[in-house]
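Supplementary Methods. Inverse-folding protocol.

Structures were first reduced to a discrete structure-token string of length 291. This string, shown here, constituted the complete conditioning input.
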């Protein structure tokens, strides 16, 4: 029997790495900021070859229902499992996603594509060490998969191994030069290590890609604001939202930097935050949407 979908909880904003739904370091606010529903998030989408993936929520729910029915007929079947898990992930139903891919991995324990999707799902539910192990087994050294390498990077970033994460991103970029999703993750990783100049340059490369979406540009705006370039951050935001919303988002970032030690710690010359802020590094409950 298929797991029932849970209701959508209050929205939160997190600095997010693509690929693994990797929650890293910072939280913004419990309510949308200035109407920007993707503020602080990076795209969680990595292109996959099976089916055209919907972009709006209504279509995504239809997609999930369709593939859920197919999955119910043969739980663990590869194509149905991967497409159904993708839909659950898009709806932020991470626990269900992980359960679907676990069944597929039991059925096909050596299938690289299944293991890659299972490792990503484990990362989505915060089982980072298990995700790290599964992802390591999801490709051969002779034929690495750039999408999996990027997910491995997000897992390492969440484990605070930023140097290891950046190595994975660079390896992914050797296979997929200029890939905006990987560049975006690398840029955010640089930001987490207070290398804001590198973060800005890398995110500019990502945002310049015709395949970059609004969330990539919002991460560029975020890094610009962290470096005190508020006017430029607002200009970047205006590419995807109204001038009023872009201004509100920049004001929200300024307020967060002023009020939160974890945010201030990413600015040039700042000291490391105290341990009491550690709870901000924890992933949110899986019932809450990512934006």
């Amino acid at each position: 029997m298929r797991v029932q979908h849970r209701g959508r909880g209050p929205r939160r904003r997190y600095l997010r790495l693509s690929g693994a739904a990797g929650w890293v370091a910072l939280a913004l606010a419990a309510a949308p900021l200035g109407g920007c529903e993707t503020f602080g998030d990076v795209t969680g989408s990595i292109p996959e070859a099976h089916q055209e993936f919907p972009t709006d929520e209504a279509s995504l729910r239809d997609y999930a229902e369709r593939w859920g029915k197919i999955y119910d007929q043969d739980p663990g079947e590869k194509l149905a499992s991967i497409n159904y898990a993708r839909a659950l992930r898009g709806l932020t139903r991470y626990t269900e996603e992980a359960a679907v891919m676990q069944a597929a991995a039991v059925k096909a324990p050596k299938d690289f594509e299944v293991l890659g999707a299972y490792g990503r799902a484990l990362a989505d539910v915060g089982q980072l060490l298990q995700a790290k192990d599964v992802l390591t087994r999801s490709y051969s050294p002779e034929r690495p998969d750039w999408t999996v390498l990027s997910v491995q990077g997000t897992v390492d970033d969440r484990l605070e191994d930023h140097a290891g994460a950046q190595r994975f991103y660079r390896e992914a970029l050797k296979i997929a030069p200029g890939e905006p999703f990987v560049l975006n993750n690398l840029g955010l990783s640089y930001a987490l290590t207070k290398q804001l100049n590198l973060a800005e340059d890398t995110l500019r490369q990502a945002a310049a890609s015709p395949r970059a979406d609004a969330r990539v540009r919002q991460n560029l705006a975020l890094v610009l604001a962290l470096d005190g370039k508020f006017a430029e951050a607002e200009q970047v935001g205006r590419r995807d939202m109204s001038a009023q919303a872009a201004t509100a988002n920049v004001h929200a970032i300024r307020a967060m930097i002023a009020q939160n030690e974890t945010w201030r710690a990413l600015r040039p010359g700042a000291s490391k935050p105290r341990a009491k802020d550690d709870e901000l590094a924890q992933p949110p409950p899986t019932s809450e949407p990512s934006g």
